[in-house]
Amino acid sequence: MELVLGTAQLRNAYGVTTTLDGPRRSGDALALLRAAVHEGVEALDTAPAYGEAEATIGEAAWIGSVHTKIDPEVEPAASLAESLGRLRRRAVDVLYLHDASEVLHPESPIIAAAHGLVGREAGVLGASIYEVDQFDAAVADPRIGVIQVPLSVLDRRIDDLRLDRARSAGVAVYARSVLLQGVLTASPDEVEAAVTGLGGFVSAFQAVARRWRRSPIEAALGWVRAVGGIKGLVIGAESPEELHGVARAVRSEPLDDAMLSELRSLDQPERRLVDPRTWSKGV
Question: Is the pLDDT reported for residue 104 higher than 70?
Answer without folding.
Answer: yes
